[in-house]
Design goal:
Elements (H helix, E strand, L loop, with lengths): L4 E5 L4 H18 L2 E7 H18 L3 E6 L5 H6 L1 H13 L9 E5 L3 H9 L3 E6 L3 H8 L1 H6 L14 E2 L8 E2 L12 H11 L1 H8 L2 E4 L7 H6 L3 E3 L18 H7 L6 E5 L8 H13 L4 E4 L2 H4 L4 H8 L3 E4 L4 H6 L3 E6 L3 H9 L4 E3 L6 H11 L3 E2 L11 H13 L2 H16 L5 H14 L1
Parallel strand pairs: 1-2, 1-4, 2-3, 4-5, 5-8, 8-9, 10-11, 10-13, 11-12, 13-14, 14-15
Antiparallel strand pairs: 6-7
Helix pairs in contact: 5-9, 12-18
Keywords: Glycosyltransferase, Transferase
InterPro entries: UDP_glucos_trans
GO molecular function, one term: quercetin 7-O-glucosyltransferase activity
């Protein structure tokens, strides 16, 4: 056949766009595969405005297109499919002999696999989060049958359960759909539609996952159809929604090795003034340099100016960071994180231990792996919604930095992950098998 033409469809959220864009860049630059990357209008504008230099220089085989914005989760599942169908019809009717040959879509968008099959196009699914989360969602019918959760996903009681005999036991309070942080109606919709992830994996001819055998070996044994290809470690990320502030790299150059606390809570995490002040006081009293990423929408609601004046040049606050470059910098001591999957992978790949403040969704499940399975970081002992105090921040920070086992464990896992993506490694082989399948 001719050169493949992949229609890449991410779920319209920062972490999902970032991972699929990284795969698209690799397919386009290293393997000459044409990519049409489709975002909703607002996401498209943010990606183009924040990544124009990288996209212009490195992505000649990638075309970015947009469809109408969606109003919330329900629209993504009810209105977005029709817009994607129209896009495929437009492309395939252009008479350029460049028809779509594969739909590669986020596994949360099961309807994309149905569209591909209906149009006799190869269906491929991308699990942008951990394989454990995907397998967990696939067990929902059994969890309901066994009386562990109710029909709306609510755990009937907090308990440890084994989703599979080969996987680590997990707390029902850590289930992806159980951490709504006040957005219950939206979370119920997410639970309902996330179940279609099962259909997505079943219908896809090829399923790739942003993970590694080294991170979740038991999970991949549970569902061998899911092929890990991570870590995705491109140096020039081009799926960010906000422009990166590169000035922080010069500031990091002036800091001692292994001294800086890097603080970043992702693209949608929020916190109130009280929690901000406790985090800020903890960092201030730690007497260590820190780099703190606070998005503009969050900063506008907080009194940041007074805090910046108190810490002076010892602390730097920016709106968005070139995270891969930051985590690679020798001055970074540890990463204070919300436990987003992309952030955690980037930290481990650079040998950086983690201090965990999970916020919602799969963050609590990932924290469990960080602290209890991989043992590359620490969390806080608190009840749900409880404020983390400045004393908590100081004590956990000192514990993380004084006990060398966390750094050693992270470096050990880093080497295993990097080995897996080198030629002949398990994730490298999986990705190359995917490329061969695309070109067949």
């Amino acid at each position: 056949m001719g050169n493949p033409h992949v229609l890449a469809i991410p779920y319209p959220a920062q972490g999902h766009v970032l991972g699929l864009m990284e795969i698209s860049q690799c397919l386009a630059k290293q393997h000459g595969i044409k990519i049409t990357f489709v975002n909703t209008e607002s996401v498209h504008k943010m990606v183009v405005n924040s990544n124009s230099d990288v996209l212009n220089n490195n992505s000649s085989n990638i075309r970015l297109v947009s469809i109408q914005d969606m109003n919330g989760i329900e629209d993504i599942y009810l209105s977005m499919p029709g817009k994607v169908k129209e896009l495929i019809q437009q492309i395939n009717a252009s008479h350029t002999h460049d028809n779509i040959t594969c739909v590669l879509a986020d596994s949360l968008l099961s309807w994309a696999m149905e569209i591909a099959i209906d149009n006799q196009i190869k269906p491929a699914s991308f699990v942008s989060f951990s394989a454990t989360s995907s397998v967990l969602i696939s067990t929902v019918p059994k969890l309901i049958q066994d009386g562990i959760i109710s029909y709306d996903g609510t755990p009937r009681k907090e308990q440890m359960v084994e989703v599979s005999p080969s996987m680590p036991a997990m707390n029902t309070s850590h289930f992806v759909w159980a951490r709504n942080r006040g957005f219950w109606e939206e979370q119920k919709l997410f639970f309902e539609y996330a179940l279609r992830n099962n259909t997505s994996v079943e219908l896809a001819d090829f399923v790739i996952c942003n993970s590694s055998y080294e991170l979740e070996p038991e999970t991949f044994n549970t569902n061998p159809k899911i092929h890990p290809i991570a870590p995705l470690v491109g140096s020039n990320r081009s799926g960010n929604f906000l422009p990166e502030d590169l000035s922080c790299l010069k500031w990091l150059d002036g800091q001692p090795p292994n001294s800086v606390i890097y603080v970043a809570f992702g693209g949608h995490t929020t916190f109130d003034q009280t929690q901000f002040e406790q985090f800020a006081l903890g960092l201030q009293l730690s007497n260590r340099p820190f780099l703190w990423v606070i998005r503009p929408d969050v900063a506008d609601k907080l009194n940041i100016g007074g805090f910046q004046n108190r810490v002076g040049s010892r602390g730097l606050i920016i709106s968005w960071a070139p995270q891969q470059k930051v985590l690679k910098h020798p001055s970074i001591a540890y990463f204070f994180t919300h436990c987003g999957w992309n952030s955690v992978l980037e930290a481990i790949t650079n040998g950086v231990p983690l201090l965990c403040w999970p916020f919602s969704d799969d963050h609590f499940l990932i924290e469990h792996y960080i602290c209890n399975v991989w043992k590359v970081g620490l969390g806080f002992n608190r009840e749900d919604g409880e404020i983390i105090t400045k004393e908590d921040v100081i004590s956990k920070s000192e514990e993380l930095l004084s006990d060398g086992k966390y750094k050693a464990n992270t470096l050990d896992l880093k080497e295993k992950l990097l080995k897996s993506i080198k030629k002949g490694g398990s994730c490298y082989n999986n990705f190359m098998a995917f490329v061969v399948w695309l070109k067949a």
